[in-house]
Structure formats: structure tokens, C-alpha cells
Amino acid sequence: SAFAYLSATVPYLVENGWMIFGGAIINGIAAGFMYPAQGQYLIENSSPQTAARNVGIFWTMFRASTLWGNLFVYYIFYGKQYIDQYTRRTVLYFFMGINILAIVSLIILPKSSSDCKTEGYSSSKTAKKCWAILKSRKMLWLMFSFSYAGLQQAFGDGVYSITIGYTMALGNSAKELVAVSGIIMSIGGLIGGVCIIVFATRIRRNRY
């Protein structure tokens, strides 16, 4: 899945529309494997007392990565009304390098040391159990927040920033404002992650 994430970046170097769309599809499928695996690893290395704190730390690191990326883009795009090929490739090579470093970090992750490992199931039993959980009252309520989070992320990451870049009324600063919007959203995510860490004890105590 980590290698497949490169498929979202490499096609932009080729500048082929079909490859870009195909890479986006592959990236989406890879994310479907990556996020559950990360959650599994996080669970196996957390206890009931540290789960909320560790989730907050993970989220803070995740949002911090978008902050540094947008700061780099802001520096590269500063003062440019049009993004030339050299600038575009500089950004893409930078993100490809970060992607490769992330792949290496995943490869060298230590095995889970927790004694509280989840029980192993066959594929069919796992599917049945997931379906049973999906129909539960609590999960049905959670679907509202999950759906909102998905729509918000799709709009924030895939629509909002792009529309800023193509808003002619913003003048020559439109391109750098794309990075500014990403920086502000990253700061908001960081604040949310810090709140989870600070209020981890209260979150754990008030389970619904």
C-alpha cells in the first residue's frame, strides 16, 4: 500500500490524464488497506489506558506532515501566478522523496510487543463479524460522523484548495494561497489532535 501511494505522484511527472486518474484509483485502493493496517498496529501497541492518547499522537503527527508539506509548497509557489514545469517537478520530486522515506520507515517498524493482540479470524468469519458490527445501533450512529468526515476531507483536500488556486479575483497570490489554506487546515487538525491527547483521560472515562 505504501508503494502504491507513489502512483498518486509519479503520473504527474508524465503529465498524462489517464495515468493521473488511474494513479488516483490505485491510491484510493491502497488507502483502503493502509488505514486499517495502521489502526491494527496502533491497537496492538496500546492499552485501554493509552489508546486515546496514542490516537491523538498519531493524528497530530499525521496533520503535522501536511503542515510541513504546505509550508514547502508556499515557499516554492510564493510570488508565482503560473506554475511552470520546473516548479511543478520540484514539488513532485520532494513529495516522492518523502514517500520513499515513509516506505522505509514502515518497513523497519518493530513487530507489535503488546500482549493484547486481536484474535485471528478466517476471512469469512471476519466478513460476518464486520457485517454484524455494521448493523449495530452504535455503528449506525457513528456512520453519520464517518460520512461527514469523509465528505469534509474530500472537499477540503480535493476541491477547496484547487478552487482557491483558480480564483482569478485573488490575483497573483492565488497559487500561494492554496498552500496557506492547507497550512490553516493543518493547524486546525493539530489543535484537534492536541485536544485528544490533553483530554485522553476524560475521553476514556466517558464511553458511550
Distance between the termini: 33 Å
Biggest sheet details = none
The fraction of residues assigned to DSSP E strands is: under 5%
Query: H/E series, N to C?
Result: HHHHHHHH
**Which of globular, elongated, flat, extended, rod-shaped describes the shape?**
globular
Overview features:
single chain; 208 residues; mainly alpha; 8 helices
Notes on the structure:
This protein has 208 residues and is an all-alpha fold. It has one domain. It is 75% helix and 0% strand. The chain has helices at residues 10-14, 17-44, 51-77, 85-107, 123-134, 137-165, 174-198, 200-205. Helix 6 packs antiparallel against helix 7. The protein is globular, with a radius of gyration of 20 Å.
Question: How would the blueprint of this fold be written?
Answer:
Elements: H1 10-14, H2 17-44, H3 51-77, H4 85-107, H5 123-134, H6 137-165, H7 174-198, H8 200-205
Helix pairs in contact: 3-4, 3-7, 6-7
Brief summary of the model shown:
The protein has 208 residues and is mostly helical. It is built from eight helices and no strands.
